[in-house]
From TrEMBL:
Keyword flag Oxidoreductase: yes
Family listed: Belongs to the FAD-binding monooxygenase family.
An example molecular function term from Gene Ontology annotations: flavin adenine dinucleotide binding
Gene3D superfamilies given in the database record: FAD/NAD(P)-binding domain
Function: Catalyzes a Baeyer-Villiger oxidation reaction, i.e. the insertion of an oxygen atom into a carbon-carbon bond adjacent to a carbonyl, which converts ketones to esters or lactones using NADPH and/or NADH as an electron donor. Thus, can convert bicyclo[3.2.0]hept-2-en-6-one into the oxidative lactone products 2-oxabicyclo[3.3.0]oct-6-en-3-one and 3-oxabicyclo[3.3.0]oct-6-en-2-one. Is also able to catalyze the sulfoxidation of methyl phenyl sulfide (thioanisole).
Taxonomic source organism: Streptomyces tubercidicus
Name recorded for this polypeptide: Baeyer-Villiger monooxygenase
Length: 507
């Protein structure tokens, strides 16, 4: 199909990061080739294409942060950097023959459900099409969030976000302000500190930081993993098992995390000798409440003489003067925002209009909810990869993505088994029941009891982001579609309702 002309496909996949490419591979393995991958940029990679800031790397071991169906024995390090992960996704695209399905420069502008035709009407930057099924794999870390700072538009220097790094702008010799202390910031700070004249870190909340057990993977290991695949599988299994055993401390027994806190305190003490700076960098909440960060270079960088830590957020900009919420003032030539993404208010949700004429964002105004992290009531044949409550605090999101791909595969099988022109719409009662049980489990977790305000929580203080269990458990509950949780929609009779005919399913 020419991307600039109206056409029809069975499946439209939005996004070409891990989730979108994984969905495309799974569709092909199901024998489904009538699909397109709609990508707003000009290359695949998603988060790992957009985030190319200095020091960008993954905080999950490489052999676990890759598809089980596309192992890579050539990972260069335990924790690989952005260029290697992006190259891996390019190889996956080629190995599984996904290039013909890609439509670049095709940002989705709107999705509207047509109840009579039982398909989605898709408007993109490159044209229009219709699709029987839509798989949204835009990801929660795709749209940068920059806080509204009074006077920011008066700043005469360079303003950027970690996910939109300008490699043409030279920071050497500049006075740089780093806003935020999340996963991106702790990689950027040590990467740019040796080159800048002065680096000021605006820290509202200090993170817990543990050592990063990174090293180069030897040629012998690569050879062994290539020649004896069982060793590669064993390595992945060990990495997975260790993290599965940690889950209960996060979800049921947060008090057990005290030992990990001690390790983090000792890690800081080795690098930061100044007691006042150590006090400023020590969190006052339980470790794990926010995502635990890994770095061997963050604390040493903060201890350097050309670095200042402001224990306050950025409150105002007056020309080249940055004013902290504590009243402190700093002169800067460049501002780098490491302030995260729109996670609990996914931008794509504003563009999806369902059976009731309301958008997904409107339906989620009180918080995101989806059945098994995949489907929302009133949005038939619309599945989300990395949907609500599928995030992790200690393991690889690729495991969760693959579990959701299993669910997608069975969703497509159920459509085939039921036959004819049909759609599956999650029952409101099923969505509510699933999320009620999730939130009940959430009350015991460190994310709810740890005493912090994290990006896991939405505007109402509700955790709509993280999965309160093991990846093995999530894989089990997404193994197949339970038709009792769905209504089957069939085309309306000539004189029928415009909302389509709903049929009960015997199970």
């Amino acid at each position: 199909m020419d991307g600039r002309e109206r056409g029809h496909v069975r499946v439209a996949v939005i996004g070409s990061g891990f989730g979108g490419l994984g969905a495309a591979v799974r569709l092909r393995r199901q024998g489904i080739t009538d699909f397109v991958i709609l990508e707003r940029a000009d290359a695949v990679g998603g988060t790992w294409r957009d985030n190319s800031y200095p020091g960008c790397a993954c905080d999950v071991p490489s052999h676990l942060y890759s598809f089980s169906f596309a192992p890579n024995p050539e990972w260069p390090r335990n924790f690989s950097g952005q260029p290697h992960i992006r190259a891996y996704l390019e190889r996956v695209t080629d190995i599984f023959g996904l290039r013909p399905h890609l439509r670049f420069q095709s940002e989705v502008r709107s999705l509207r459900w047509n109840a009579e035709a039982l398909h989605w009407e898709v408007e993109t930057a490159s044209g229009s099409l219709t699709a029987e099924v839509v798989v949204s794999a835009t990801g929660p870390l795709s749209d940068p969030k920059v806080p509204e700072i009074p006077g920011l538009d008066t700043f005469p220097g360079k303003v950027s976000h970690s996910a939109r790094w300008d490699h043409d702008y030279d920071l050497r010799g500049k006075r740089v302000a780093m806003i935020g202390t999340g996963a991106s910031a702790i990689q950027i700070v040590p990467a740019i500190q040796p080159d800048v004249q002065r680096l000021t870190l605006f820290q509202r909340t200090p993170p817990w930081v543990l050592p990063r057990a990174d090293r180069r993977i030897s040629a012998a290991e690569k050879w062994l993993h290539t020649k004896v695949p069982a060793t590669r599988a064993a390595r992945r299994g060990l990495l997975w098992g260790i993290r599965e055993m940690q889950v209960s401390a996060f979800t049921k027994r947060p008090e057990r995390l005290g030992l990990i806190e001690s390790l983090a305190r000792n890690h800081m003490k080795k690098a930061v000798k100044d007691p006042a700076l150590r006090a400023a960098l020590t969190p006052d909440y339980r470790i794990g409440c926010k995502r635990i960060l890994l770095s061997n270079t963050y604390y040493p960088a903060l201890a350097q003489p050309n670095v200042d830590v402001v224990t306050a957020g950025l409150a105002e900009v007056r020309g080249s003067t940055l004013v902290g919420s504590d009243g402190s003032e700093v002169e800067a030539d460049a501002i780098v925002f490491g302030t995260g993404f729109h996670v609990t208010d996914l931008p794509i949700a504003k563009r999806v209009t369902g059976v009731h004429g309301t958008t997904l964002a409107e339906e989620w105004k009180d918080g995101m909810e989806a059945l098994r992290g995949a489907t929302a009531a009133g949005f038939p044949n619309f599945l989300t990869i990395i949907g609500p409550n599928t995030g992790l605090g200690n393991s690889s999101m690729i495991l969760m993505i693959e579990a959701q791909l299993n669910y997608l595969a069975d969703f497509m099988r159920q459509l085939d088994v039921l036959g004819g022109k049909i759609a599956l719409d999650a029952r409101p009662s099923a969505v509510q029941d699933w999320n009620r049980k999730l939130q009940q489990r959430m009350t015991r977790t460190v994310w709810s009891t740890g005493g912090c305000d994290s990006w896991y929580l939405d505007a109402n203080g509700r955790n709509s982001t993280v999965w309160p269990g093991t990846t093995g458990e999530f894989k089990k509950v997404t193994r197949q579609v339970d038709l009792a949780e769905y209504e089957v929609l069939r085309p309306p009779k000539p004189a029928g309702s415009s909302t389509g005919e709903r049929a009960e399913v015997a199970v």
